[in-house]
Design brief:
The chain is about 35% helix and about 5% strand. The chain has about 150 residues and is mainly α. α2 packs across α5. The model has no long low-confidence stretch (mean pLDDT about 85).
């Protein structure tokens, strides 16, 4: 037996080393969603994010809640920030991915059905993504130095 025989997925498949916001080809999106691993830490982050998100949905006229709608995602280079954010964008948008090899279509939330162990968390995510949401996802790739600063 070879080591490659121990793996479910083909070890020689194309794997993107870096997740990019602008990569929306069906094969890329399907692979990102299909291979997303929900670790205990990801579950905690999902819970924290979606608790805050649903709180705003439930209390849209409460300024104490609705004014707290910003999210900051931080981590070391290569820690999965972009992938996490892109998965969030797929979920919030209600994105439907299509497997180019089989033609199968699947909503982004459906990829998580078997990966979220906590039924309360999955219910919270389902509630959050059941409405409509406009998602803007882009890379900020600008460089500036002191010469570029203009006095206002």
């Amino acid at each position: 037996m070879k080591i490659q025989d121990l793996f479910v997925r083909d070890l020689n498949r194309q794997i993107n080393g870096v997740v990019k916001a602008e990569q929306l080809e069906p094969a890329v999106v399907w692979q990102e969603l299909d291979e997303f691993v929900v670790t205990p830490e990801i579950s905690q982050l999902f819970d924290k994010f979606f608790q805050a998100y649903v709180d705003v949905i439930d209390n849209p006229n409460d300024p104490a809640v609705s004014s707290q709608n910003g999210v900051w995602i931080s981590g070391f280079f290569g820690s999965g920030k972009s992938h996490f954010l892109k998965i969030l964008s797929y979920l919030l948008e209600g994105f439907e991915a299509q497997d180019p090899s089989s033609g199968t279509k699947k909503k982004s939330i459906d990829f998580l059905k078997t990966r979220i162990e906590d039924p309360l968390l999955f219910s919270l995510i389902r509630k959050a993504v059941s409405g409509t949401c406009d998602v803007m996802l882009f890379n900020i790739d600008s460089k500036a130095d002191a010469k570029d600063v203009h006095a206002a």
